[in-house]
Amino acid sequence: MLNRRQALLCSASFGAVAAFPAQIFAETVKHLTYPPLLDATRSQRFRLRAQAGKTRFNGGVTTDTLGYNQDYLGPTLRLMTGADTQAEVENQLRTPVSAHWHGLLVPGDVDGGPHQAIAPGQSWHPVLSLDQPPATAWYHSHVHGTTAEQVMFGLAGVLHVTDGQDDRRGLPSAYGIDDLTLVLQDRQFNRRGRMTYNSGMHDAINGFLGDAMLVNGQVGATAVVPKGIVRCRLVNGSNARIYRLSLSDNRPMHLIATDGGYLDRPVALNDLTLAPGERAEVLIDFLDGIDCSLVSDNIANSAMGGRSGGQFIVLPFAVDSTLPARISGLPEILDGVLPNLDFAGAPVRRFSLDMSMGMGMMMARANRQFSINDVAFDETALNFSVALNSLERWVVQGDLMMHPFHIHGVRFQVLSENGQQPRPENRGWKDTVLVNGQSELVVRFEKQASRSAPYMYHCHILEHEDGGMMGQFSVS
Ligand code: C2O
Ligand code: CU
Ligand code: CU
Question: What's the average model confidence in pLDDT over 153-182?
Fold first, then answer.
């Protein structure tokens, strides 16, 4: 059952938008479910079908949604590193879609970005050869101009890269029992329960913010967990919402992995910021058998100002001591040692993320336009090329808003944030980082991307990306 504090939090609002619907928590506890696991570690092949669906989210009417192999979202893909996996992605929709493997270190021609859009009725057959450390990645459609809408309605799923060694590491690995995949998304429903997304001017400028919290496509569900150590693979699959996550009784979350995989040891955090596109794996200790909730601060991120404040429940946890508790202690060390990259003498590249054109366009009521270094995305123009197996120092400058900056096909380390040490959750391998001022990165280019199949770099607020805050580069 929900405690007092949880009930209070339920009624906290998302700020400028409508109050969080409190009544959904009043009914009996609804158990959270996890996306079906599509384990391709043995077969080394999998199939995704982008399809139209119907979903009833919150006791309302059924609403039109999109999914891979199902009505909303897609299965969790488990892929073996060190192996080649044959993928097939079929498009059963009437519009082009893609499947971008966000976080997989694969060459540009199998990356699934805008240049690998799949026409209606067609299939795409990339081979994913993985040689990266275990990590939580994700996949989503990435067709330029429709990414925000397609992800909003469900074209996204989670990817686990594994090496089969998590038992040896002492990490929880039972899918949906003590190894929980959690896709965080905010959405908006009308009175009848239909999912709405109009990408009007406000959303187009600031990015979409909804007033209903969904985890794995479910509203108001509770995760039932064993009385032991539980692993949460947190994926921010929201279009624009930034979460600052904590636990309602202030117990720590032990960070074990960032975007690119494991740290060298767990790091106890009281709160953890997760921007769109980012992933974090945390261990939570439920050995005391006490329930608590994952909560988030309500963060305003708007070019027009706006108030942050208050908290809302992301996901209540309920301990069930009849469930098998396999892990009863935190591992002391992990094997994700961050190498010291020698970037002295590495080329420096500067990026400035800019939405002022978008603001001006808004005033003129014309099309939105966002840019990086004053140029908006142009699918036919390569912005630069870098050398394979090189390092570069990228200095990324934000503007009025915080922008989650993402680079395809690479991993990077954050050197500094506004001249300071990076936040603890940014001290591992990353592929997406929230830029709030200036961030300095050292980027390692390990895979090839040709001029005709380049990698993207962009803001992961999907409305900004669609609006042009994106560029592309080759690696050769
Ligand atoms: Cu998750 Cu270019 O995207
Ligand atoms: Cu990506
Ligand atoms: Cu942005």
Answer: 98
**Which ligand is closest to the CA of 277, given by its number?**
1
Residues that place a CB less than 5 A from ion ligand 3:
403, 459, 461, 464
Q: Which ligand is closest in space to the CA of residue 405?
A: 3
CA 80 – ligand 2 centroid, Å: 19
Q: What is the pTM of this model?
A: 0.94
pLDDT of residue 57: 93
Residues 222-237 have pLDDT tens digits of: 999 999 999 999 999 9
Structural domain contains residue 336? no
Domain count, the chain: 3
- 65 and 14 in a common domain: no
Give the whole-number percent of the chain exceeding pLDDT 90: 85
Ligand nearest the Cα atom of residue 141:
1
Which pLDDT score, from 0 to 100, does residue 108 have?
98
408 in contact with ligand 1, CB cutoff 6 A: yes
| CATH at residue 368 | 2.60.40.420
Statement to judge: residues 206 and 100 lie in one domain: no
Phi, psi of 338 (to 5 degrees): -85, 115
144 CB less than 6 Å from ligand 1? no
Same domain, 43 and 183: no
Answer yes or no: is the C-beta of 233 below 6 A from any ligand 1 atom: no
Q: In which domain, by residue range, is 376 found? A: 348-475
22 and 72 in a single domain? The answer is no
pLDDT, tens digit, 9 for 90 and up, residues 384-409: 999 999 999 999 999 989 999 999 99
Does residue 142 line the site of ligand 1, with CB under 6 A?
yes
Q: What are the residues whose beta carbons fall under 8 Å from the beta carbon of 137, sequence distance 6 or more?
A: 101, 102, 103, 104, 158, 159, 160, 161, 259, 279
Task: Give yes or no: residues 196 and 305 share one domain.
Answer: yes
Identify whether residues 155 and 238 lie together within a single domain. Answer: no
Per-residue pLDDT averaged across 228-250, rounded? Answer: 98
Which ligand 1 atom lies nearest to the CA of residue 432?
1
In ligand 1, which atom is closest to the CA atom of 102?
1
Shared domain check, 401 and 378: yes
Verify whether ligand 1 is closer than 6 Å to residue 140 (CB atom). Answer: yes
Residues 142 and 176 in one domain: no
The complex's ipTM works out to: 0.99
17 band by pLDDT with thresholds 50, 70 and 90? very low
